[in-house]
Amino acid sequence: MPLDATRNALVLPMLGLLVEQPAHAYDVAARLAGRYPLLAGTRSSVTTLLKSLAGADLVRARDPERAGRRPARTVYELTAAGLELFRNRVGEGLGEGPPASAAFLTALAYLGILPRATAAAVLAERVERLSRELTRLPPDPPELAEIQMIEVAYWRTVLHNEITWLSTLVPRVESGDLAWPGQARQ
């Protein structure tokens, strides 16, 4: 686990789940596993991270609540500082997350937490950055067999596809075609 618990890969989606609704550790772990199966996180990891986030005043622990015959559980809710951190991390993940990475994908899942104009600008900057990276890739040397540079061909395709997809997404965000939380589709 990183020394700064907020840098743990589970924190961004955990905060996102708490934006949706306050929850106890078991619920957060279950929803995390259901929504993000590629992120390995145990219930104890989630509990430890929630306690660390509470210690940093990013989430607030409510008094334990009992539901039916179940044991009392501590419900966590996001604080204003936690929401600010969440928004910042979404922006970072969208702008700086490596192509085709879990960091980018989890940030993309919460695109709507950003103001529409900010989201469009961050994604447009990403398109520019990835386009520069794509143009810097070496051409396939004719003297080498394709198999010797197969990873470059793969990376070129990954970058091209992400650029293409984002280039259609940015205008949809800007125009209002993509519905935003709390707003009707325009």
TrEMBL record:
Q: What is the lineage of its organism?
A: Bacteria, Bacillati, Actinomycetota, Actinomycetes, Micromonosporales
The organism named in the record is Paractinoplanes ferrugineus
Q: Pfam families per the record?
A: PadR
Domain Transcription regulator PadR N-terminal: from-to ranges:
14-85
Q: What is the protein's given name?
A: PadR family transcriptional regulator
